[in-house]
Amino acid sequence: MNSFNAGPCELLPWDTEFFGCRIARVRSEAINQEQVAQIDAWCGSNKIRGLYFLARVDDPATIQTAEQHGFGLVDIRMTFEQELLDFLAQIRKVGNVSIRPFQPDDLPGLQVLARASHRETRFFSDPNFSRQRAEDLYATWITLEAQGRAQTVLVATMDNKPVGYISCHLPPGGREGQIGLVSVSGEMRGQGIGKNLVLSAINWFWAQGARHVTVVTQGNNQAAQRLYQRCDFLSRDVRLWYHKWYPISDQKHDNRH
Fold first, then answer.
1. In angstroms, rounded to a whole number, what is the distance separating the alpha carbons of residues 13 and 18?
2. With contact defined as beta carbons under 8 Å apart, do 166 and 153 qualify?
3. Which of 11, 5, 256, 7 lies closest to 134, judged by CA?
4. What is the reported pTM?
5. Which 8-state DSSP code applies to residue 243?
6. Alpha helices, DSSP H only, in 57-214?
7. Which residue among 10, 181, 182, 217 is least enclosed by CB atoms within 10 Å?
8. Domain residue extents for the chain
């Protein structure tokens, strides 16, 4: 069996290709001293450069073990959820801003928004990822969402110019939807556009047959947390994102260069 498909970690092909170095993720959400030795050995034999670890927040032994062995805390992952009610959300009009499904001509504007947003995420907080590459990541991410990875992307526009977006994921026949990326341009924040985007997404999920919606945000993104709470989401889960970096002398590509 290929070592990438066995052992305590899994290789992440998309991240590896995008960042130009081998990236993997720990399979478990809890680790001990013995498992750390196995993780380090696996990463060494597979020439892993960067390692992600999503840890349980209620396991002090795991947190202590991770921090003793070179894992750095980069993000607090918070999941919010809502059971959808049997009525459509009422959306308050904000100026001449309208919300509609994505159109191909929106893409350049969405990419600009994506580059300027999502600063609270782990890819910006980890100095091993350059700011430029983190911006590239989210520009690529919204492109993939708009081109079919999400079931729909709703766009807030003013004078037909994108000023915000929200992506929605719902498996065929599924009852649980997930909100993906959400952004409002800096100069348009504080007017209720973000709330209208979330409520529009909730209405879309309901129309598609979903009865439960989740969304993930960062522990230091208080504005996003308040937005979801205003839209009647409740906190469901908290996890800790750790990254660990290994020095590999023969690595041909390093995203920091």
1. 9
2. yes
3. 256
4. 0.91
5. E
6. 60-68, 107-116, 122-125, 131-144, 193-207
7. 10
8. 3-76+240-245, 81-237
